[in-house]
Amino acid sequence: MALKSFRPLTPVQRFKTLPKFDEITKAKPEKKLVETLKKTGGRNHYGRMTSRHIGGGHKQKYRLVDFKRKRRGVEAEVLAIEYDPNRTARIALISYPDGEKSYIIAPAGLFIGATVSAGENAPPEIGNALPLKAIPLGTAIHNIELVPGRGAQIARGAGQQAILNNREAGYALVKLPSGEIRRIDENAYATIGQVGNIDHMNVVSGKAGRTRWLGRRPHVRGMAMNPIDHPMGGGQGKSKGGGGRHHPVSPWGQLSKGFKTRRKHKPSNRFIVARRKAKK
To answer: How far apart are CA 16 and CA 205, in angstroms?
Structure first.
């Protein structure tokens, strides 16, 4: 994906960097593969706010992406590469010989007219989904299942990829994008290649309005609030927590730097071979 920059005629344009959308070949989504997406404003079914800084934004429809690659042993043709407002990656519209269409995450290098397939006998080529036991070691993969049949859960964002390192005792050792090495059932499916839209990390919106279009509301710092609104608020001038030295905390008092929130005896611990951050 190419990026476009702008002449610095205004302060906004000086650092603004937006995608060119060169790879997009179809403007409107397939009608049968979209659903209405209702906005919550960060509130649950009781009307209570559970996620702050959410609200507004442009109307969107949800694209039904096939994360399970249900059609096995059947080749499908790539008809188009489309924009998906619900994710950072691009999606590819594929068509099977019987006319059925579906969406998949578009990996880097996938082009219109290419054929993709899923199954144990599929060749390990870009866009094909195979069980981990059938993928050559050292291959870059994405759309990885944690549990066979559940559907892809790992490495689905723009530019993400994992590396298949090894296989032992019915499990595959996969190095995740975070650096964590995890043991995954070798019957779980994964897709060959790296997720497309690789330059997404370099996009700079340039103005607050574009962030509002995405449904993100302003985020106010705790130190800028009053003591009644935040533990770090108040103080004479700029201070650390009301004039005294105060460690950064959330609005509810939970430490926000260095405090580990993961349960010590979580069942999935046995599948983690190496943490993403080595213990000192």
So the answer is: 6
Residues paired with residue 140 on neighbouring β-strands, in sequence order: 163
**pLDDT of 219-275, one tens digit each?**
999 888 898 998 888 888 877 656 556 788 999 999 998 899 999 999 999 999 999
Placement of tokens 């962030």 in the chain:
211
**CATH node for 3-201:** 2.40.50.140
Q: Is the pTM of this model over 0.70?
A: yes
Q: Alpha helices of the chain — where are they, by DSSP H? A: 11-15, 208-213
CA distance 273 to 276: 10
Instruction: Give the phi and the psi of residue 277 in degrees, each rounded to 5.
Output: -120, 120
Taking the domains of the chain in order of start, what are their residue ranges?
Answer: 3-201, 229-271
d(CA 6, CA 124): 40
Concatenated DSSP letters for 184-220? EETTSEEEES-BS-GGGGG-B--SHHHHHHTTB----
- Gap between the Cα atoms of 113 and 93, Å rounded: 11
